[in-house]
Write a structure and sequence with these properties.
The protein is of the alpha/beta class. It folds into 2 domains: 299 residues, 3-Layer(aba) Sandwich (Alkaline Phosphatase, subunit A); 90 residues, 2-Layer Sandwich (Gyrase A, domain 2). The protein has 13 helices and 20 strands. The strands form 5 sheets. It has a 9-stranded mixed sheet, with helices on both faces. Strands 12-13-16-15-14 form a 5-stranded antiparallel sheet. The longest helix is centred in the middle third of the chain and has 23 residues.
């Protein structure tokens, strides 16, 4: 029986499961094969583990390998989620911001699902499907998109209203599929820590409560795996896309205080700015902006520091600004009126560091990785899955100390 027919039978009555087009026969697959679960907790700083509200994550960290992971620049959600699954910096995989302009395609937003936006790099679920493995994505940027004519076998379109409990339940439901339809690789995404961090700042009580809630969701996942006798054959790779820094209304640099707003075409603003001069005003805008500012800096695209690995992709605006940590660039038309948190800053900033925990078969316990970068996650996943992954910007040696074999 084909894989699609089996899946239809296994998931009859579930309107939420969406199946890919692959019809390869999987009747000979070993039901005891290992499972890899890639979990993203958006905006989770490594030091959140020190707040005493994460018994599940802290136990997984104690039993596995950990790192304070450096994100890619700009340290925002969509670029770094695609970095984690492609092993490439945003400049090389093409998702260079949460919003940006493409010379041919127009404006990208977080709702853009067309494959042309995403096909500059291959995510791990496509690589795994090509290798004959089965994948499921419980939310992840790019996972709703056809890439190279393929999608994950199971996926859910992003819906922020889906609770953490329901996200875990969906993952466990996929794992309850018959042995030849059980996923080998699953992604799972939580956004509430980031949302709380933006609204209340990284030190807010509400942010700590969101951290505790996600930990409870993961406790449910762990227990569900144990109930299914899958825990001992499951490897967790738990990551964040970036950290979070406190901001305040008085820490804003207004671009239209430096030059009139009509001279600017802003694609993205905040901790990092992508902008183009209005036609005919290039020299004027560059003279006003391209320099060191009291709490930030603006560069021409070709002059962005090499360590940030940004500027070769035509989707990067001709002028890019980066605020100092805790500061924002804005406009008078959209003033910042309440304190909170932001990310997107220099990826070397301690506040931008991201959570990394790996625990499971083949991972050595107690290892602290000191050179971990977000581009290193994709080659690590390839080794865990036993597949060859496309070459990227990551280095095998950065995570090799954590590998038992």
């Amino acid at each position: 029986m084909t894989r699609i027919l089996l899946a239809a039978l296994a998931l009859f009555g579930s309107a939420t499961a969406v199946l890919a087009q692959d019809t390869a026969d999987r009747n000979s697959v070993d039901p005891m094969r290992p499972v890899t679960i890639l979990v993203s907790i958006d905006g989770f700083r490594p030091d959140y583990l020190e707040r005493g509200v994460t018994p599940t994550l802290s136990a997984l960290a104690a039993e596995g390998a950990t790192a304070s992971m450096r994100p890619s620049f700009p340290s925002v959600t969509f670029p770094n989620h695609y970095t984690l699954v492609t092993g490439k910096h945003p400049d090389h995989h093409g998702i260079v911001g949460n919003s940006f302009n493409d010379p041919d395609l127009g404006r990208f937003t977080m709702a853009s699902k067309e494959s042309a936006w995403w096909d500059q790099a291959e995510p791990i679920w496509i690589t795994a499907e090509k290798a004959g493995l089965l994948t499921g994505t419980m939310f992840w940027p790019g996972s709703e998109t056809t890439i190279d004519g393929m999608r994950p076998f199971y996926f859910r379109p992003f819906d922020q209203s889906v609770t953490g409990e329901d996200r875990v339940s969906q993952v466990l439901a996929w794992l309850d599929s018959p042995g030849n339809l059980r996923p080998d690789l699953i992604t799972l995404y939580f956004d509430t820590v980031d949302t709380a961090g933006h609204r209340h700042g990284p030190d807010g009580a509400e942010t700590t409560a969101a951290v505790a809630a996600v930990d409870r969701h993961l406790a449910g996942l762990v227990q569900g795996l144990k109930d299914r006798d899958l825990y001992d054959q499951t490897t967790f790779v738990i990551v964040a896309d970036h950290g979070m820094a406190a901001t305040a209304p008085e820490r804003v640099m207004y671009l239209d205080d430096l030059i009139e707003a009509e001279a600017l075409q802003i694609a993205y603003a905040g901790s990092v700015v992508y902008l183009e001069p209005a036609p005919g005003r290039e020299a004027e805008v560059e003279a006003a902006l391209v320099k060191q500012h009291p709490h930030g800096v603006c560069w021409r695209r070709a002059e962005i520091p090499a360590r940030l690995v940004l500027g070769s992709n035509p989707r990067v605006s001709s002028i890019v600004c980066m605020a100092d940590v805790g500061w924002l660039f804005g406009t008078r038309a959209r003033e910042v009126t309440r304190p909170g948190g932001a990310h997107g800053y220099d990826n070397d900033a301690p506040e931008m560091r991201a959570l990394f925990i790996a625990k499971g078969p083949g991972i050595l316990p107690g290892v602290v990785l000191t050179e971990m970068d977000s581009v290193d996650v994709q080659p690590l996943l390839g080794r865990l899955l036993g597949i060859q992954v496309p070459a990227g910007d990551g280095r095998v040696e950065d995570t090799l100390p954590a590998m038992a074999n």
